[in-house]
Amino acid sequence: MSTTPSTGHDEIDSQHVELDRLVDKALAICSEGNHSAAGCVACPPDRQANCRREVMALTRELLKFMAGHFRYEEQLMRRLPENDVCREHVKRHKRAHADISAWVSALTAKLATADPYAVATELRRILMDWTGAHASGLDSGMVKLHQQTGHGELDEDAELTKLLEQAGKLK
Ligand SMILES: [Fe+2]
Ligand SMILES: [Fe+2]
Predict the structure, then answer these.
(1) Which ligand is located closest to the Cα atom of residue 93?
(2) What is the pLDDT of residue 136?
(3) Ligand 2: distance of its center to the CA of 53 in Å?
(4) Ramachandran region, residue 3 (left: φ > 0; alpha: ψ -120 to 50; beta: rest)
(5) Mean pLDDT, residues 145-159
(6) Would you state the CATH architecture of domain 10-166?
(7) Domains of the chain: which residue ranges?
(8) Ligand that lies nearest to the alpha carbon of residue 7, given by its number in the listed order
(9) Is residue 59 pLDDT above 90, yes or no?
(10) How far is CA 18 from CA 74, 86, 90, 124, in A?
(11) How many angstroms separate the CA atoms of 5 and 132, rounded?
(12) CA 115 to CA 36: how far, in whole Å?
């Protein structure tokens, strides 16, 4: 069970609950434990094909969620004041979003040939390492920068609300 730490921003935290749900889905793949140390070779081909579809659907869902969630956070970053600390934060934060999106995309491409169980295992490892650290580091850092600079009142912002609506609340 994954639990992403609170950032102190209600909307970001509620979006992270959705991210947790997707991480839990990744944890549940092949939970029956009928894979062997050798990977998926012990499973019949139709079961392997099912797992491949399941992992593929999850990586697509994740990429879609991440695109909406990162767009939301990056819109908030645009409201930060122009100074070196904020500029450096925005650069690092956007790079981290681009990196995780690229990792998940690369895993999706790998699925064409690799064992679905191996891809699911790598996906779990990346997500478990990334989500908590990112939320407690860069996401919380961004919320603090907004609070310190008096840019904390953002929930009523019309543009952000529109973004959420467009993303269908990111699902
Ligand atoms: Fe972020
Ligand atoms: Fe986030």
Answers:
(1) 1
(2) 92
(3) 26
(4) beta
(5) 68
(6) Up-down Bundle (1.20)
(7) 10-166
(8) 2
(9) yes
(10) 18, 27, 23, 16
(11) 6
(12) 12
